[in-house]
Amino acid sequence: MRGLFFYINFNNMNYLRILYLPLLLFGLCYTGCSKEPASTTFPDLIHRDTKVSFADFIGSDNCQACHADIYEQWKGSSHAQAGGPASRENVIAPFNGKPIVLNDAIVYPEVVNDKYQFRMERRNGDPLQTITVEYVVGKGLMVNGGTQTFFGKFSDGTYRFLPFDYSKHENTWFVQLKIDESWVKTKPEHSLEDLYNWPPHRVIGEVAEMSNCQQCHGSQIIAEKINDVYDVKFTSLEINCESCHGPAKKHSTIMSNIVDGIVNPEGDIGIASAVGLTTDKSLDMCFQCHAVKTPLRTDYLPGENLHDFYSLKLPLLGNENPFGANGRIKTFGYSLNHLYSDCYINGSMDCTSCHNPHSNDYQDISGNALISRFDDDQCLSCHVTKSLDIAAHTFHEKESDGSSCIACHMPTRQHVGIGNEIKYKRSDHTVSIPRPMFDVSQGFESACQQCHSDISEPELQEIIEDWYGPLKPLNPVIANRLKIKDNTLGGDAAKILLQPEHFHPMGQFYNLSYFIKRYLSPGMDYLDIAIVQKLKDYANYDDPDIKALALAGLHYSQYKNKEIRNYLMSEIGKLGDNQESVRRRWGLILDYFGTVYFLSGDKNKAAECYQLASEVLPNDPTIIDNLSKAKS
């Protein structure tokens, strides 16, 4: 069964997991009109052809001649060193023949005839397997925990993630365990069967039927199955110019022709400028990789609309939502929680507000280079008044560690899903203000506690309030979520959670999904007209995730209501070029609901949901298979 697949990234890789969160159905009734099952048929789903092909890309070296300065900035960046062939230049791990001793095997990382390999033997000395390392990903460059991962090529054409990783900061080999998916240093008590990635199964590229790394760890990765073999192609395992700017072949041709006196009659330069992008479009460049996301299609290449191929919010739907109430990472994630920050919600901050996209160095809002990643001018270039007397704001001595903006507002946190043996801390991109008691209530160590571990959270809260007075209220969308209790009835919950007028896309998606899961059920006879209207208001969002969730909620709960079905048909007609994108999300959501019921033993309701999903995505083989199993 698939249910709704989503990705949580461990070991710099992605793996598929079925989402499962029990629906808390209260059997609530709302006033409305009971209808017989309606027969309105969904229109055929038209599969949109891709606009970009692998042949449209030329690689970064072809950019150097015209963009020499930017090329040199990029060449020294972490993106340019993100991965590549297993070579002396790229490998940082000790392939020196020193054995990794396991309970049932001995593994020798070694170099033989300039080939990097893991030679594996049984404990009695019998040969087990030798796997050649073809490529590496990572170079231990992350300041708060950098690692390197290794890939071998397998007989089916795939490049698979090997089970032994290296941590530069811990100077040790480590593995991921099956039992809890944590990262731990290799130990003699571990057996091969204990390792999550043995035998190797996670592949580079978006391969629907296999656990995979999506397209993140390299440039223009595309995989196509031909008979029983995969044709896996990529420009490089660096993160190249075209990963952000899109395909450059047409641009290169046009500009070369101009040099030869041939002007492009179309009047453009063959590539979209990144200057003047909206905040969201700029963020999408980075969220191609720096986000936990759900695949909708497997053929994404830069230059396409990211949201036609991936959903950034469907991972919030199930029980392994990577984010806490206000966006802080509670399992494993990337920088998508920037979308929870007030700098985004009430400002226009994107990644390039702080990060130079070419060199990956740090800069202020005006693009001026900063001395270090900890330079306060990242923040003070916007929050200018705070710089007049920084100590008066921080209550810490100027230039002390405690006076640093990021020490309080972007503290580094170990990602919980990793465990504690391997250092993997990342800055908190929610840019939150310290709230010691709230933080501890949500299971997080507060920024204050990181330095002042000898002071209790209540005492720290008292100090904060003494300094600053009443703290700034939480965003209403987040605050409303926290008001819902175990005994909150549906009508009250609707008034609290369903407030579409507030701008907070991530929070709104979570609140709406929570309401649907807890208070709605398949084919309800009655649903209050005010709630129906709220769902319609959400369906008017441009955001495809929220739109799809609202339409799925109406379809799920009111499919027997002819008026609602007519409304759904009308909304589909308005989707235009976005129809496939929205319907893929919509169908996955209903398929997820079906899987929740199936796993809880209610095959009738599961079949009901799968049938609805099949209306939205009529030829989806997994939904068809799920429906068949639910009816068996």
Structural account:
- It is a single chain.
- The chain is an alpha+beta fold and 632 residues long.
- Mean pLDDT is 93; it is low at 1-35.
- It has helices at 68-75, 241-245, 249-259, 279-287, 306-309, 342-345, 377-380, 390-394, 405-409, 436-441, 447-451, 457-468, 476-483, 490-497, 505-519, 529-539, 544-558, 562-574, 579-599, 603-616, 621-631; strands at residues 5-10, 13-18, 83-85, 100-101, 105-112, 115-122, 127-132, 135-137, 147-153, 159-161, 165-167, 172-176, 183-185, 222-226, 229-233, 294-295, 310-311, 412-414, 425-427.
- It is 31% helix and 13% strand.
- The protein has three domains: 83-233, no CATH class; 314-473, no CATH class; 477-631, no CATH class.
- Strand 5 and strand 6 (115-122) form a beta hairpin.
- Helix 16 (529-539) packs antiparallel against helix 17, helix 17 (544-558) packs antiparallel against helix 18 and helix 20 (603-616) packs antiparallel against helix 21 (621-631).
- The chain has 21 helices and 19 strands.
- The strands form six sheets. Strands 3, 8, 9, 10, 11, 12 and 13 form a seven-stranded antiparallel β-sheet that branches. Strands 4-5-6-7 form a four-stranded antiparallel β-sheet, with no helix packed on it. Strands 1-2 form a two-stranded antiparallel sheet.
Helical coverage, percent range:
25-40%
Number of domain units: 3
What would you report as the Rg, rounded to the nearest angstrom? 26 Å
The computed structural class is: alpha+beta
Number of helices: 21
* SS elements, strand count: 19
Mean pLDDT: 93
* Overall geometry: globular
Unreliably modeled segments: 1-35
Strand fraction equals 5-15%
CA distance, first residue to last residue: 14 Å
What characterizes the major β-sheet? 7 strands, antiparallel
